[in-house]
Design goal:
- The chain has 198 residues and is α/β, with parallel strands linked by helices.
- The longest helix has 26 residues.
C-alpha cells in the first residue's frame, strides 16, 4: 500500500467524512447517516479452502480500504470504500469477492453465536447443516469504489458486461446473477452533495 492509499484511507476513515461520502454516493446527497451512526469493523476478511484432491489447505486474507458498520434506524449495514487511482478491469469480480467474504464472515459469526446459545440442540436438520436458523438474517454489504483517475473510467461496472456471450446466447443472462459496482468518479462529483467539503 502506497503513501497515497494510506492518506486516503485515513481521511475516509474519519466518521464525519465517511458518513458524508456515503450520503452522497448511495443516498443521493440526503443526510441519512451521521458520524454517530457509524462504528468500527475489522477491515480484514478471510476464507480457507480445503482441496481434498491435492490434500492441502489454502487461505486468503484481504483488507478493505475502509469499512464501517452503519446504523440505519433499527437495522445495520456494512459499508465499505475501495480507492482506485487506476482502472481495474476486474473490479466487478474483486468487489463481488470482497462482499461475499463479508457475508461469509457474518455467517461464521452467526454460527458461533448460535453454538454459544446452545442452539444446535434445538436445530432442525437444515439448520444443523447450515449452522444458522431460518430466522437469522445478514446485514447488507455495500461497497463504494472511488476512482481518482484523470480519464473517465472505461472498465466494466458489472459482471454481465465482463462475460463473453454471443448474441444468440444473451438470453442466458437472466439466469446469471449480476454484480454491479457502485462507482464514484472523483472528477464528476458534485461538490454540493457533500456537507464536509470533501
Amino acid at each position: 500500500m502506497g503513501d497515497k492509499d494510506i492518506i486516503l484511507n485515513d481521511y475516509y476513515a474519519r466518521p464525519e467524512i465517511f458518513a458524508d461520502l456515503m450520503n452522497a454516493a448511495i443516498f443521493n446527497g440526503e443526510e441519512v447517516l451521521t458520524k454517530e451512526d457509524l462504528s468500527e469493523l475489522d477491515s480484514s476478511v478471510s476464507e480457507i479452502w480445503h482441496d481434498k484432491e491435492a490434500k492441502r489447505t489454502r487461505s486468503v486474507r484481504k483488507y478493505h480500504d475502509v469499512i464501517k458498520k452503519a446504523a440505519l434506524g433499527v437495522e445495520y449495514a456494512v459499508l465499505a470504500i475501495e480507492n482506485q487511482d487506476e482502472v481495474h478491469y476486474a473490479m466487478p469480480i474483486r468487489g463481488m469477492n470482497y462482499d461475499s467474504m463479508e457475508y461469509i464472515k457474518q455467517i461464521k459469526e452467526l454460527k458461533t453465536q448460535n453454538r454459544k446459545k446452545g442452539a444446535s440442540v434445538h436445530q432442525t436438520g437444515a439448520e444443523f447443516l447450515s449452522g444458522i436458523s431460518g430466522e437469522d438474517r445478514l446485514m447488507p454489504v455495500i461497497t463504494v469504489v472511488i476512482y481518482y483517475g484523470k480519464e473517465a473510467y472505461n472498465g466494466c461496472t458489472d459482471l454481465h458486461s465482463m462475460l463473453r456471450l454471443e448474441k444468440e446466447n444473451q438470453g442466458l443472462l437472466k439466469y446469471i446473477a449480476n454484480y454491479k459496482i457502485n462507482l464514484v468518479q472523483a472528477y464528476r462529483v458534485d461538490e454540493n452533495s457533500f456537507k464536509t467539503g470533501l
